[in-house]
Amino acid sequence: MDFKNKQGDFSQGSVVKGILRLTIPMMLAQLLNVGYNMVDRFFIGRIPEAATVSMTALGVCMPIITLASAFAYLCGIGGPPLFSMERGKGDEEEAARVMGTCFSLLICMGLALTVAGLLLRRPMLYLFGASDETYALAEGYLSIYLLGCVFVMITLGMNNFINAQGFGRTGMVAVAIGAVSNTILDPILIFGLDMGVCGAAIATVVAQFLAALWTVRFLTGPKALVPLKRKYMQLKLSRVKKISSLGVTGFTMSATNSLVQISFNTNLQLFGGDPYVGVMTIVNTVREIITLPALALTDSAQPMISYNYGAKNYSRIKTAIKFMMVSTIGYTLFMWVVVHSFPQLFIGLFSNDPEQFVIGTPAMRTYYFGFFMMALQFIGQTVFVALGKSKKAIFFSLFRKVVIVVPLTFILPRMGFGVMGTFAAEPVSNFVGGVACFTTMMLTVWPELTRGEKDQET
């Protein structure tokens, strides 16, 4: 067996080491990926005399940006498990066709989203929490961002195919190129050229273009185990359906995140006004940062689980799930304590406004109460997706967000809890949704894996 085959073979060696080998570079890659928006918010939060209104304007754009990401995840989450399963079966040509199909879909969806977003941006921004004071800034940022939507789609959608081949460090480099570029360009454009929020958008688009270019160059180059080739980019309906059936889980999770952001912004604008919408932007940014290690662990476990499911190595799958449980629950429990103890530390990363500290401290403590329960949702969703059980993953994503969070953001403030009632919707959903998802996974998947082990023994 040559080096390349060893690099992508998840059926050999230590399961824990195999996951960790991907986790660290993937976590750094995801940190750098979050860095696109995090860096924007860091500098936007320091625009002289316009920091709060600029942060609020960015916040009302986030549901649309999240929705665009949802379409990228349709391929970025739906394709790699199929890709890994086919490689586990030894059918690398079909794996290449899965990857090529995803690439074509991402370009088509990116172009469609650009056109639709530009046509509908005004009604969407007002619907999503913009005020007359913040609309102009939000419209400027969003218009520029949409023009680079195709690059965003390629970066988010195709990078997981690098990780699925075992090249976690290479995937990290792709994101690092964009993140570093964005970090350099942001202060130059925002402050040096006095472009403000629009400068942040231009920096993001340029950075995403560079990251997309690196990703495509690697996947089409000689180092890829399964290279991206034009002859495999045809859109065959049956293959698109398979990708979509798995990817719809990631799509649903991200699209419902957009719906949750809309419900938060709408109610916070109604009960608190622009300052609270700005605080919500900070809260969401902090969440993106502190969930990174947990998501990196679960994302790294996914190719291990999918590959061994295709190869019918059930004991290795159970080991991967156990490790994922211990590591993610332990980490999120630790982060709950940190955020509850030092909320001002996190707020200060993105705002110098004293009002943001006053209203943001109780908001942070309320929103992140019992945060460790979210790990149960991460674990259950990952296992369902990795094993191709997309219906269950979709159901629990919808259950937590659409059935619990969104209604509560409207109900709790009107029950006398005011603006803090909106923030309280999140921890309630974490407890109820997380327990439901994890328990169902353990009651359905674990017995299936145990039966598979026994059948192999006999």
List the helices and strands and how they pair.
Blueprint: H1 3-7, H2 15-44, H3 51-76, H4 79-89, H5 92-127, H6 135-147, H7 149-163, H8 168-192, H9 196-219, H10 237-271, H11 274-290, H12 292-310, H13 314-341, H14 343-347, H15 354-367, H16 374-386, H17 390-457
Helix pairs in contact: 2-8, 2-9, 2-11, 2-12, 3-5, 3-6, 3-7, 3-10, 3-11, 4-5, 4-12, 5-6, 5-7, 5-10, 6-9, 7-8, 7-9, 8-9, 10-11, 10-17, 11-15, 12-13, 12-16, 13-16, 13-17, 15-17, 16-17
Concise description?
With 458 residues, this protein is mainly alpha-helical. It has 17 helices and no strands.
Keywords:
mainly alpha, 458 residues, single chain, globular
H/E topology pattern = HHHHHHHHHHHHHHHHH
Class derived from helix and strand content:
mainly alpha
Number of strands: 0
Total helix count? 17
Strand percent estimate: under 5%
Separation, N- and C-terminal Cα atoms: 29 Å
The dominant shape is: globular
Overall description:
Helices cover 84% and strands 0% of the residues. The longest helix has 68 residues.
